[in-house]
Amino acid sequence: MSQPLLNAATPDQHKLDILRQHFPGAVETDAQGHIRINAAALQLAVDPSNPAGVQVEEDGYELRWVGKREAYHSAFVPVQKVVQPLIADSKHWDSTGNLLLRGDNLDALRLLRHSYFGKVKLIYIDPPYNTQSDSFIYRDDFSAKQSEVLAQLGYAAENIDYIKNIYGARTHSGWLSFMYPRLLLAKDLLRDDGVIFISIDDNEQAQLKILCDEVFGQECFVASIAWKKRSSPDARDTIGAVHDWILCYVKEPSLIKTAIGKMPLSADRVDAYANPDNDPRGVWASVDMTGMTGRATKDQYFSVTLPSGRTIQPPSGRSWGLAERTFQQLQADNRIWFGLTGDNVPRIKRFLNESNGQVVPSFWDMSECGSNDEAKKEINDLMGQADVFDTPKPVRLIDRLLTISTAKDEQAIVLDFFAGSATTAHAVMARNAEDGGNRQFILVQIPQPIDPKAQKEAHNFVTKTLGKTDATIFEITAERLRRAGARIEAEQAAAQQAAPPAQLEGFAPDAGTTVRTPIDTGFRVFDLVDDPDALIVQKPLQEATQADVLAMQAAIATPQPALLPRVLYNLLLAEGLPLTTPLRTVLEQQLYLAHNVALVVQAIPLDVLTDTLRALQAAGTPATYLTVYAPWVADDNFMLGIKTVAETLGYSDDKLRLRG
Fold it and tell me: Residue 155: which residues within 8 A CB-CB, separation 6 or more?
């Protein structure tokens, strides 16, 4: 019954289990405990008629770099961090569905994988572009332990030295090793109809495209979108770049139409709609009724008698784009347009109120999606100070991503694990305010220090305006969330006050009256901190001392009220529940209810526990699962009796869990 606190299986383990299930003879374990796949046995199982058909491709098309295996391995190593709730730094803690995590996004993604596997609708990231202007510094904390891991992964000594060197260098290999594990974990978080957008410039665009083809699959590639980010090129360049790229991939290619929809009609497209025949259904635009001859059937070649009396055939080299019977039905419904004179080639009427938008183009102009200058003005205006953040994205850019990939009537989770200035969250709140949607955001931002000399304005803003001791990018992220949320709340309140008064109860409101649903502008903040328990477990036995054992007992086995919130919220992750799940206190310091999971954190008299669980069931809030945090339960009688209690109440073995 005992299970580690966080123990999600890796993709490797899942694939290995499938192989063992279907091809047990092909999976072998050598004397050192290493897994080997017997290709001949696998070939024989798949195609017994051709047992000699095993072929090993020595050369092939793939992206290779020194350190790739280590980068893959780093995505799925055991989690060494836990979440620490920071309630005082949060907003609307008890009611919000939004998250802000402080820490390395690789650690965050590993943790989120426990509760958000396959649940995220949209991921947008703006990672470091690996240019000299980037302030981001890659990891330079190479340890002896990592050297051992590399040796276990089969790297030669010279390759290990090379990988050490790229940890702090701006190389393609270092950048790919940085991105690879994060994209692997991001893929796991996406829903089947999920989509990921990644901003990048020309410096790493080619490498990123091939990497994403490998991680997500070439068939999942949708487009490389060119976004014009500035009006004119830098005069110092030979050919000045005025655009960035946004790579778009879907999780499941068969669901691409679900993952990405159309965007609203542009202003010029809307202006093209008119109503020259005063159709009561409103304005419309006419579209071509002809079709290609190569795909036409014989019932698409028919004569049309125009209102003028003239009879015509399809234009030369074309067919009609619909069958004769369909044409007659549309004509009867006044959906065929012959021109003002009634003598033009027929066209089909498409009404504006029936339009579901237009196809998303692969070029996005700054007039529609904003620019770098607009983004800087937005954050400067919000923060009341210039140069708070160097490279923000405009809200309109993220809004287009939200518009084409999320619907207002779904509880879509939007993830940005390079949060920066929090434009993504700002856009989510603004879009919800605009259409009444219920999208939720998850942001991750590392507490990257702000250089007091190179970034003087930003440093002064954090230390003087905000009064923070440590000047980090995270503080800017969190402050923008607070200010953007407050502004949206104020705008909503003003709009509601200006709206016509509601009708008396029992009567429908006046046409045009808007009753606005309050928008979730809150967020829960969690810090990613070291897990002392995991660090103790990892210490080699020969290095452990009596002091280590005593420290472990003090840190783990003694209930500590100050650590209770941390234990409870990490139990949420262990149970696969969102970190925004409300926690209900049932018995103070002993029993809590999270959704349908009862969390026991200290020993309770077994008769009291039984009566309490029955009372929850009678009240209509039953606990389907019973989880016990074992380290804080020192009562042996409780541990011996809990299984009997569970059986008495009808809990099957899989519904009772010991964690820790």
Answer: 69, 70, 163
